[in-house]
Amino acid sequence: MKITLITPSPLSDGEWNIPYLDLRGLYPSLGVPILRELIKDRHDVQMMFYDHIVNDDDQIVREAAKSDITGFSLISFFQYPATRKIIRRLHQEEVDTTIVLGGLFSTYHARYICEDGVDVIMNGEGEVAFPQFLRTIENEKPLESVSGITFRREDAVIDTGRAPLADLDTVPFPSYDDLPLEEAGYKYIPCETSRGCYNNCSFCGIFPHGNWRAYSPERAIQSMKHAYEYVRYAQAPHIFLTDSNFFVDAQRIKQMADLMEDEVPSYCPTRVDHVNRETVKYLKKIGIKEAFVGVESASESTLITIRKRLDHMVLEKKFEILLENGIVPRLSFIIGLPGEDTESVISTVKYIVRVIEQFKDNINVVLFPCRQDLATSASEFKWYTSLETASNALMSDHDNALRKWMLALVYLVNTYHNTLHPDEQIQKIHQLIKSSPRETITQAIQYDGKQRPWLGGFSRYFQSLSEG
Hints:
Elements: E1 2-7, E2 11-12, E3 15-16, H1 31-39, E4 44-49, H2 57-65, E5 69-73, H3 80-92, E6 98-102, H4 104-108, H5 110-115, E7 120-122, H6 129-138, E8 149-153, E9 156-159, H7 181-184, E10 190-191, E11 194-197, E12 211-214, H8 217-228, E13 239-241, H9 250-259, E14 266-270, H10 277-286, E15 288-296, H11 300-305, H12 312-324, E16 328-335, H13 342-359, E17 363-367, H14 372-375, H15 378-385, H16 390-397, H17 401-419, H18 422-434, H19 437-446, H20 459-467
Parallel strand pairs: 1-4, 1-5, 5-6, 6-7, 10-13, 13-14, 14-15, 15-16, 16-17
Antiparallel strand pairs: 2-3, 7-8, 8-9, 11-12
């Protein structure tokens, strides 16, 4: 069969769909390249990548018209508005192709997406379900026999549950030669050595919660070396490990270090509860240069609400252990988590002020995008997708002064710590803590011309607020 697999754009009509954070071109998603490696011997497969640019709708429709299967891999909601536009056009022009969606976002919203015009959803990981689905289509068997899909039949939506999880050592490495590495100018070359997470933080989209599985140490090293061959095409001099928590298995890390002949410079996410001097010694030998640490909040009550087990008393000691071994921590904070009020937000900003001189540009602050009471419901999702773009939906959710203040605060904290001397950064952020929401928003408008490259402009969102 002729199959077209697409990584769609997070842009709608040229506008980035989230106003305070732009992750275009960070690194390519591995979902589509891995699926292609699995099925390329039996099918004619082409890949199309738009994660760094606007979708070429005309080209996608032309290729879909020549394809038996047209698949889209969606990691986040922000890819859906532009993808949905293409799907509607395929229906309007009566293009004869089966529309398949996969990825994290599609899994969480499978029933609604099917009701919205998609033929089939791959639930969860696709390495088992997608090849089985293709064999079923070829053999003209009923789709009910395929584990791990949701599909539409007339007015009914049918869910066959989850497919068995693949043995990760049997999953092929992606073919980086087929990715638009030079054209896109990605910051990192991605690499996978494990999936899932043992933890169950309520705000996190990592799939699956409470379950972690990994490549064998030998296979993990092969994967890292394979990715590092292409690091010359990226902006950063090291690969990015897409693992949710690379540090979690100390025995595996030691085995990898024992097998590693030459270090592979790498950047990886982790949790500080797994940081200790013995483990970090092995991480250094493997080649870990930077570690992404989700601190999220300085408010203990907020951390309890989001089920994030984190002891602030030992946090900075863990950072010292990393730094002593040449591993730079990159700290991430989220403003506006479920249950947060002004006092909770201020405690987090005060913590950022305290550590900002030490970590400087290795701090990132984002805004939690929606209210908890609506975030997991189908009505919330339907309300979002009824709007033209995700940015409109996001701003519609900021219908109170606290949310608008949080958004302006996120913008300014990110901007200040990249453009000002550390002393000025701290002074400015101290001023923000004491500011009213309106004062903070006004500052964001005034400072809008100096934003970091990946931050969207704020003036168009806040100008009316400063006038009212």
